[in-house]
Task: inverse folding
């Protein structure tokens, strides 16, 4: 099972649309995971129409329309992998401890908010992933997103992709 992981798309505020490379990845993915800050419900509609499956949450910049359709925390089992998605996890300091406490029984937690890519594993084995942002690099060298594979309850082939500057 192939995953595309994005967050903080901020369409149409930071970009008028998602990069073409992201749309190509949507077509190749079995599941698209979006960790919030969509900004406009039209992007959710477009992703749901194009993707085989979307797992998403709302973020702090998402208004009532998105909050009515998306949860604050999403949980799913994908090929035996227990996945959770949330927008914010708080400051980087203490993140592993907080997330391990708040998301026990989870194998992988995807989060966003910071626009800073993150990939770590807590002492208890929880994998934490932040894909950065495909549209707003902030202080990062590139806009980014993640892809990964899930099989037999394991996440493999996690790859951070940098998008060319436009």
Result:
């Amino acid at each position: 099972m192939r995953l595309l992981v994005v967050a903080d798309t901020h369409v149409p505020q930071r970009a008028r649309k998602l990069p073409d490379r992201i749309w190509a990845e949507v077509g190749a993915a079995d599941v698209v995971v979006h960790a919030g800050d969509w900004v406009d419900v039209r992007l959710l509609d477009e992703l749901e129409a194009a993707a085989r499956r979307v797992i998403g949450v709302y973020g702090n910049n998402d208004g009532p329309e998105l909050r009515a359709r998306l949860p604050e925390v999403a949980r799913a089992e994908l090929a035996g992998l227990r996945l959770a998605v949330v927008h914010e996890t708080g400051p980087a300091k203490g993140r592993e401890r907080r997330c391990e406490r708040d998301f026990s029984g989870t194998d992988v937690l995807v989060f966003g908010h910071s626009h800073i890519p993150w990939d770590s594993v807590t002492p208890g084995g929880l994998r934490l992933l932040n894909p950065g942002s495909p549209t707003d690099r902030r202080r990062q060298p590139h806009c980014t997103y993640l892809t990964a594979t899930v099989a037999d309850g394991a996440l493999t082939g996690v790859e951070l992709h940098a998008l060319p500057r436009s």
User: Anything to note?
Assistant: Residues 2-163 form a domain with the Purple Acid Phosphatase; chain A, domain 2 fold (CATH 3.60.21.10). The chain has four helices and ten strands. The two ends are 30 Å apart (CA to CA).
